[in-house]
Amino acid sequence: MEVGRMNQTEKEYPSPTHASTMPPRSAGTVGPATVSRAEEYSHDSTPGTSDTIVPGDAGNDNQPRKRKKGFLARFGKKGKDDDEMQRTMTSESKKSQQKFSFVGQLKATLLNSWINVLLIAVPVGIALNYVHVNPVIIFVVNFIAIIPLAAMLSYATEEIALRTGETIGGLLNASFGNAVELIVSILALVKKEVLIVQTSLIGSILSNLLLVMGMCFFFGGVNRVEQHFNVTVAQTASSLLALAVGSLIIPTAFHSFTNAGDNGITELSRGTAVLLLLVYGCYLFFQLKTHSAMYNEPSPKVDKRRTKVEGGDTTKGIAQMGAGLSASMGGHNAQRTPLQEPEDENEQPQLSIWVAMFTLAASTALVAICAEFMVDSIDALTQNGGISKTFVGLILLPIVGNAAEHATAVTVACKDKMDLAIGVAVGSSMQIALLVIPFVVVLGWILGNDQMTLFFDGFQIAILFVAVLLVNYLIQDGKSHWLEGVLLMTLYLIIAVAAWFYPAAGQIAG
Asked: Running DSSP on this structure, what letter comes out for residue 305?
């Protein structure tokens, strides 16, 4: 009786149906009312929903439930999505397979930087070497010619790096960025200019650590309160630099505090060079294999400093002061600069892979030619120009070799890409200390030159130690500002003045 009364009440006063509030239907529930509500639910739901359930035949309760038009509805909707996705993928594939014209690639290679105007000095410097003019003029012209060639070499390396990923690309950038120093060192070593080899390599480390990084900190921090970078990566490179400096101090101390003289210096240097090369191999495995995620982790960005005070800034400042006070009470930093997540930039290559490789090979060959003419004229410059070889090696040659790295690092630092800037400055210095210097020592071993050792001039070791010490102090917190850049550049200027007045006949092994 009660069941009949409830059915009669439901017929007279039907309850409203809601598609989104229908309870789940049990497996054994059947009946006209339930079927009608399920059908209404299926009509109210969005088309293409694959979870629409309808009962089986009334006479067969054990028949499994079916999905009403789920496949067809889903198929119809996904067809549009697939078309859209296919259209997007087609456009992206067209972008990735963009056509490179000869004129466009020529313009991209020659007109990518204003510094390429100096390319006119390349044929002029080569021609002057064969007309036998004043060697000082040959040195100056080839000195200028190497600057745009280094920039072109860096540009070709960046084009190749766009296709290899960030980690491999950064390694290529650092390796070919030091190609000029390596070429100059090999040519000078063949001509038995050991003092030029040693001073140019130490000067390249100093130039990267002090001048390049100092300009990055200064120009990047002028419009910002501070900048952030991956402190773990930077300190790892600095620790390796400290090891390299120690490998230079030990042979110097061995020579100075023993009565053995040059006995044992050559063997000690060659054994140490082999160990440093093994350490560099371990560093590559660390960077590319075991801890590659740490090197690819982006750092937070900081907004530029505003010069105008806008409405509501006072209120925001008071709120930030209160937040900083509460944070300090909680054990966090009281002064916290607003940070932003790094934005990904989709940079497209401007050269095909073959043109980029040809540009890399051509610029490297031209650098080798101009560097050979420049090294040949160094003796005439130091004898007639009143400049010591120490100043030429410590200051002049590193400026030429690092010209492209200077421009690249400062440009990315102004865009708040400090990880890349630190990678160029500290990474290049670390590579010279752990790869180029030991390689040159081993090459001298192969060539039978016993004077090429790790026993450097005491003045060079002292200034290198001070430079690495200052850099370690400044990067230990993972933040930088413009004053730190001033400190680094000031130390570099002090070293340049000292190198200018340093006696020409510095002490050297052999």
From this structure: P
